[in-house]
Amino acid sequence: QVLHEPLIDEDPVFIATCTERELRKRKKRKFSLWVRQCSSTGFICQIYVHLREGSGADGLDALKNKPQLHSMVAKSLCQNASGKNYIIFTGPSITSLNLFEEFEKQGIYCCGLLSTRKSDCTGLPPSMLNNSETPQSRGQYRIRMKGNMSLICWYNKGHFRFLTNAYSPVQQGVIIKRKSGEIPCPLAVEAFAAHLSYICKYDDKYSKYFISHKPNKTWQQVFWFAISIAINNAYILYKMSEAYHVTRYSRAQFGERLVKELLGLEDTSPSH
């Protein structure tokens, strides 16, 4: 499962019909939305909404790049994941040694991308955080271990660092590029790339079905985003059921049928 912020775009039809004056008056979103999402089905297991209470030191803008906010978000999203042998994939803003060690005590395994600029690097060896001066070839990597935790520094046109307790650093994997072919890497790197690529496919397929609400009321925006996630989840469950093999509705047809049934219309068959 992956912890991330889903892609939420403004309604392109609404934006296209807005005047410049209306766009200037439209306020920015006053909340941030994180999810815990299954990377094999796309089902969103849990959402976390952080409201911006003001522009002071405790506001979302002030905490956006600080590790304590993202650590709090990760703990909240994973509070029901203990002891289920889940592997949680995280981005640089969430990945930290302290958080992963706390998750490990709860029976939650982790694999995350590190960034010296965005991540909390407390407790990590400085030698692994500095780029090597000697030129390296693509696919080379260095490893440091502490108990079950591995810090991997992998080179591919730049240094990429991963922190994990879910994969053995000696297990080999490959990253397949169209032009470069196969690039050797630790299995943790291959798994991270595979799981994140699925989330990108989910965003491409389902983000256009998020319901954008014109009013600037925060609770209304949160409500419609939550409804959108619930409908997408329902369609994913529908595709996994036997009913999908009988009548294969597209996502648009599924949404149309759902609206008609909620309105109590007699004709619930899709028009196309």
From TrEMBL:
Signal peptide: none annotated. InterPro entries: PGBD, PGBD5. Pfam families: DDE_Tnp_1_7. Residues 2-235 form the PiggyBac transposable element-derived protein domain. GO terms for biological process: non-replicative DNA transposition. It comes from the Eukaryota. GO terms for cellular component: nucleus. GO terms for molecular function: transposase activity. This is PGBD5 protein.
